[in-house]
Design goal:
Elements: E1 13-14, H1 15-24, E2 54-59, H2 74-80, E3 88-90, E4 99-102, E5 105-110, E6 116-121, H3 135-146, E7 163-170, E8 173-178, H4 185-190, H5 199-205, H6 209-212, E9 220-226, E10 230-235, E11 249-254, H7 258-266, E12 272-273, H8 278-288, E13 292-307, H9 317-326, H10 329-336, E14 341-342, H11 357-361, H12 371-383, E15 390-397, H13 400-414, E16 418-425, H14 427-436, E17 441-448, H15 454-461, H16 476-487, H17 491-505, E18 512-524, E19 527-528, E20 546-547
Parallel strand pairs: 2-11, 15-16, 15-17
Antiparallel strand pairs: 1-4, 3-4, 5-6, 6-8, 7-8, 9-10, 10-11, 12-18, 13-17, 13-18, 14-18, 19-20
Amino acid sequence: MKRLSRSLWLPAITVASAVFILVIGCAPAAQPAQPPAGAGDSAQGGVQPKYGGVLALIETTEAPTFDLHQESTVAVTSPVGPAYDNLVRFDPQDRNDAKIIPDLAEKWTISQDGASYTFTLRKGVQFHNGNPFTTADVKFSLERVMDPPKGIKSPRRPALEPIAAVEAPEDATVVIRLKRSYASLLPNLAQGWMAMYDQEWVKATGDDAPAKQVMGTGPFLFKQYSRGTEVLLEKNPNYWNKGRPYLDGIRILIVPDPNTGIAAFRTGQIHIHNGLNTFDTEKFKSEFGEKMVFERIGTINWGTLFMNTTRKPYDNPKVREALYLAISRQDAIKVVAQGDGLLGGYMRPGGPWSLPDEEIRRLPGYGEDKTQDLARAKQLLAEAGFPNGYEALIKTRQSQSYIDHAIFIVDQLKRIGVNATMKPYETAQIYDIMDKGDFDLGTWPGMAVALDDPDALYSEMYLCNSPRNWSRLCSPEVDELFAKQSRELDPAKRKALVLQMERTAVPQASKIITSWGIGRTAYYSFVKGYTRHAGSYNNIRHDQVWLDK
């Protein structure tokens, strides 16, 4: 094994400082991954957490499968995430997912050249079936994401592409060797999708076992799934982090109708609601006051119109540009997001990688006055052979927010003579449709990734071979800029490359971004230890949450 540099214990680092630590070769002293059992949590004002109770949550759609490695919807992470652990995780109290802390790896070191990461695993960890968690499970889980079995997709595969090998030289040691410098390895390992699976169980049960069953090392056991109704999880009495979780269990109600969900929240059947709009938030503030806690945060979530560039007429750049110009982003914010939205490119507006707001507003199609944009769009359609417009079909998800978004797009496109109709599909079906490219136009108001990081977002969405590049638009220039920024370890130089990549990619309209989301959350004040994150997929375990009642 290649000799590592002097000890670089990294029990808790921030994403922003990860590259700096790697370069200078020093880091803070080792600390426990979690507070000792029964210790007061400073984020909770030093109040002693209480044990017991069942946390009630809500989801609006069914999980297409239970496999965290191959799915891309919070309908999976919400019910399944509490049953799994990662190698490393984001601090659940850090809303911006900037601080990485140990999880199943209690510590790690980075070689001086940044070419290898060595993780030391916790001892005595068991899967819910009693099998011991070993280095073989780490190697198996990461390789399953990197090179999935036949018939299993892997949306996060590009995020691990820089890994050359995962080695297990000793009982409690895993070494990840890289093909090249890679600034985003730890954040990608920390996202909520990178669960550790039981190799022995999967091999005995079948490659698709995680799609049908849940078998992790996490703080909660997957107890019951009533299709269309609820998911029940119960406390794992043998959890490796002694004293956790505080809750006896979690109950997730599946409520497709938004009004029914609001009613369930109002009556206390649900304790946390992450999908409130402005009107409902203000109403709950007036009605409940200090009995509820309210949070508002910019999210890694955006509205999108897809054009399938492998089909006519969307293989024509003039048609794509016409639709790009036709959409009013300001109207999308006012109408669809009810004012809770932001103008942005492909990286989260206001985040560390975003173009400046004033530059975003100068992008073609982003201005408030649409007179010239609409005239130019009609001209482009005429040049493409559609002087009188054309008929179109928009496919979307069977969910009220998705239908509302599609209706908005239909109305916008009529202004340039594109007469579109909308057809919704169930969650599993629409994902299959989009993955296979069986559509002309598709709308998605809740497109999201787990990380506000160009490596994670572009590799999944915007490169020639990205698994969720549903528009199928390939730009070698964007791919080249992506490769350069991903290898660059100097933060300032990397940011300059990312901004250049944004300026190149956004006008190409691989996706037409209608607006970026602002998340509104409310929860009853007896819910303690919970923090809404910018990403929807990372703070999903709830091992730190407790009920003060």
